[in-house]
Amino acid sequence: MPYGWIIIIIWLTASFMAFGFGIIYYAQFILPDPKAESWIEGINMLLRSILHMGPKPVRSRKSAEYPGEESLPSSFDTLQAGILRSYQALAINKGSRFARPAGPGYVRLEENESVDQLFDLRKHVRSQDVTANTHDGIPLITNVRIVFRIKPSRQTPGATDLEYPYAEKAIFQVSQANSIDENNELLPWSEQIAPQAASYLVSEVAQFTLNELSEEPNLLNGIQSRVRRLLRSNFDELGIKIIDVAVTMHDLPYEIKQHRLANWRTSWESEIREEEAKKDVKVQRRMKRAQSQAQVEITDEILTKISRMRRIEGINLSQVVYLCVMGALDEAIAGQAPAPEPLAEDDEDEEYER
Asked: What is the per-residue pLDDT for 14?
């Protein structure tokens, strides 16, 4: 067609204008409050997103992801802005120093700002099994469970629209709490509390014997309270609120159960032997008392018969003694000797001594 290059220029111009107006139109959806932010910022963000071709920026070691932690939205790498969930907050650095906390909701990074860490504002729960030795050297398997979160704001309920309000100072404190473990790996703030609680628990359990811990449940409650108090005093200055600490004991190993059963059996067997020995002593005392009483009665009977025979029949002493002794022995052998009267148990020792 004649003048075809003019038509091409017109179509290209229309296309570029449509693209530009489209960028301007969509820019209004990038910034949540057009009155506070210029549309130019939205246009810059869209252009950065379109023209971004390189790799994502490398973040600091402290902002690396830890297993189980949520990752930062990728828009912070391309657009320097993004939307955080209602339970998320950021620690933002300017250069290498802490600048401000931000989030949840829409967050835009200013010039020279970078994301240091992403925080979960919800309650965290950590549980750890702990092997502690009692005061008598017996290994005891226990469990400590901790519930904690970043310190909430001190504002009255309803004074903020945030679902999980937080203290801005606490974000700064927690951002400085990360450390490196023995393997030179990142140890986030959320993974430092359970090991510290386990250390406190080992020290507390070592003060009591196994029998004391098993028989007095209040001791375990006291240990739990002291571990909670130590954790709160240690982590309060780090911007972490310890909500609850629970300490429980697992079942004892089979060998320890058998050992305790043997000790229990030994104590009862010793008590049984002691009771049987006491009964044997009582039986012997009763037998000796019966023998003494029988001898006294035999003697009295002999003396009575001697007196009667001498007075009435005129029999001499030797004959009387012989006849009385033979008669008494016959009665004793035949079981006709009168049984001794039972004494009260309280009078047994006194009567025996008499």
From this structure: 93
